[in-house]
Amino acid sequence: xxxxxxxxxxxxxxxxxxxxxxxxxxxxxxxxxxxxxxxxxxxxxxxxxxxxxxxxxxxxxxxxxxxxxxxxxxxxxxxxxxxxxxxxxxxxxxxxxxxxxxxxxxxxxxxxxxxxxxxxxxxxxxxxxxxxxxxxxxxxxxxxxxxxxxxxxxxxxxxxxxxxxxxxxxxxxxxxxxxxxxxxxxxxxxxxxxxxxxxxxxxxxxxxxxxxxxxxxxxxxxxxxxxxxxxxxxxxxxxxxxxxxxxxxxxxxxxxxxxxxxxxxxxxxxxxxxxxxxxxxxxxxxxxxxxxxxxxxxxxxxxxxxxxxxx
Length: 311
Description:
The protein is built from 9 helices and 12 strands. It has helices at 2-24, 34-46, 76-86, 134-154, 218-231, 255-260, 274-279, 282-286, 288-300; strands spanning 54-58, 63-67, 72-75, 97-100, 113-119, 123-125, 160-172, 177-186, 193-201, 206-214, 232-234, 250-254. The protein has a 7-stranded antiparallel sheet, sandwiched between helices.
């Protein structure tokens, strides 16, 4: 029942946005087209968001963002609303915040957003940085995904294939930042999905920056990576160099596990499924029912589409 309630909450939140936008329309204006209605909905929603620029303190993570140019930040509450109400993802991501390339980027299909989360499981040692075989890791990840897909099919879910590295993992030992990108293929979709990840290592854990977009935005994100890498820094006392082996917690994994994503549920491949619905956000504007069905297929399985209860 919990899964059904979650799906209903997401659907109600999305429908509430549509109703809100309709209330803003003037009854005297000419009947809008589907595209006009969608644009009106998006513009009405964007006006409810609070964009921040410049220096932004991430108190929960002990870090600071220094946003330059057109980069803007949305706090956790607004970021969650974008993910659920604007893009139709199931609730529960609970992001620390979101970075967008400009205030208007959320209304464009050819743009991207960077979702921020913080993991406080301890200091992640980078001793394995020079010994990781990323080709071998990719093969193992692909094999693991293939096994997961067998179970997903049996449960009535759509499959997700790891096509390969969109960008091979790279680690900057000086700044203590790790970044890489995966190319994913979702069953029933002609276009592939991009998951671009950045990890900023700190004394007590790491800051995760996950760019969600379509593969067509890879070049755009690659061009922004130097800027994104310089945006986030841990504060004095919370930096990687401040680690005290005598008092601080040491994470039970190294850099390789961060890339493989198999240690913490927050970093796992399944949690990244939200990228597919972000990529398909254009359908929200013209067909809420179709997106709701698609969400059920990938997150809840076919058995729930007929109204059967779940635990």
